[in-house]
Design a protein that fits this description.
Number of helices: 4
Low-confidence stretches: none
Largest sheet: 5 strands, antiparallel
Radius of gyration: 18 Å
Number of strands: 5
Strand order of the largest sheet: 4-3-2-1-5
Shape: elongated
Structural class: alpha+beta
Helix content: 55-70%
Distance between the termini: 8 Å
């Protein structure tokens, strides 16, 4: 049981770190035409220079993606803190309901954010790069989506022994 809890804790920390990276970094869509050009949630990057603002930065869809990704980080960190708190204060035999519920809210925020991004921007239609592919941040976000769902369900099923 201790090994399982430690493993879940490590995966949860990895998920929080990956959520930070994929929200902060500007590599959601990478251009196939221009060398070293990528688009993120916040800026356009060309040859490592990320000074150029997004042309569609005022769109509500992008703002909702930014908001939901920030909310997912907040709920993931809250879930981690609640888990550690419950681990040391909860009576034996109880389940980690609050940690699981908070992590599933994080999962839902990731789902909404990445789904809106996928429908509006991932094809390169709204970006200025018609020939492009997904960057590592986009892929990391989907990995965090899977991890947060698994962690949330495990928290709901596990009992403290």
């Amino acid at each position: 049981m201790l090994v399982l809890l430690a493993g879940i804790f490590v995966v949860h920390i990895a998920t929080v770190i990956m959520l930070f990276v994929c929200t902060i970094a500007n590599v959601w869509v990478v251009s196939d035409v221009l060398p070293k050009t990528s688009v993120g949630l916040w800026r356009n990057c060309t040859d490592g220079n990320c000074d150029e603002a997004l042309g569609y930065a005022d769109e509500d869809a992008l703002k909702s993606v930014q908001a939901f990704m920030i909310l997912s980080i907040i709920f993931s960190v809250i879930s981690l803190v609640v888990f550690v708190f419950q681990l040391f204060t909860m009576e034996k035999g109880n389940r980690f309901f609050l940690s699981g519920a908070t992590m599933l809210v994080c999962w839902l925020c990731i789902l909404v954010g990445v789904s809106v991004y996928t429908s509006h921007y991932a094809s390169g239609y709204m970006t200025k790069y018609p020939s492009s592919h997904h960057g590592y941040c986009f892929i990391l976000t989907w990995i965090c989506f899977c991890f947060s769902f698994i962690i949330g369900i495990l928290y709901l099923v596990l009992r403290k022994k």
